[in-house]
Specification:
Chain lengths: ~100, ~210
Amino acid sequence: MSGPNHSKRDEIRSYATGYGLALALTGAAFAIVYWPSFASTTTLAIVLGLALVQMVVHFRFFLHISLRKSARDNLYLILFSTLIVILMVSGTLIILLNLRVRMM
Amino acid sequence: MSSSEVKHPALNLCDSDELTHGLAGSEVLGFWVFLMSDAVIFALLFATYGVMLPATVGGPTPASEYNILPVFLETLVLLTSSFTFGMASVAMKHGAPRRQLLGWMGVTLVLGLAFLGMELHEFATMFGDNAYPTRSGYLSSFFALVTTHGLHVFFGSLWIIVMMVQVMTFGLDARVKINILRLGLFWHFLDIVWIAIFSVVYLQGLIR
């Protein structure tokens, strides 16, 4: 069973893996903007996609959120907060952008 | 109550200190709830920024004000500080010599302050270009979002200093350990918010 009782070495390796992955994802996002090679909307979609993946990497390797049963509550809290955030952010954007269009 | 359970986000103490691990569950989870509410604040600042983005009233625009290299360096510094704080957590959990824990915390503190220095320098350059918060709706929302994150990093740095002093005066008792776990959560959380800032604010503004 893989519990959270890892040896010190495993834990350091886990942080190092997360750091390496995060560096690669950050580098990719900046590189694609620095050397533009796609249409601007495609680039934006890729940048946002990479950001999402990097957030998952940070949650997994730095905050130790996993799908393991005893860690499930923490994950539920993140997912619930994400739901609230999506509702509030999309609501704000829809209402205010709609307002702008109508005021123009 | 098993010591091999994951009780909260961040590194779990588990067998290395079963007593504190038992306490840490509710104590650290409570702080995690606070961080999630903080995430909602940041999300709404992002929404405000998105709405205000076209409101430049003929003044400075994202493309004219952002520079990719300083932002890349800031990102690397903050990311590295997240890793060094992780090393501090591992040192604490496995009872490494105290100066090793203090060393990693010190490195994290220096990186945090370096990040703040670079950010202030960037703001100074923007002010020099007449890009100040009252210039336009876009700049108001930009400074509201990015300085809120900067203030978090500033208070996180203060907190690191406080925890280093606590480790030196009280040693590693249960209270100090739980506080360092909370500080770790806070620090890693700020790095996650920064991912959103460099992607949504800086990179989006620089895409041609």
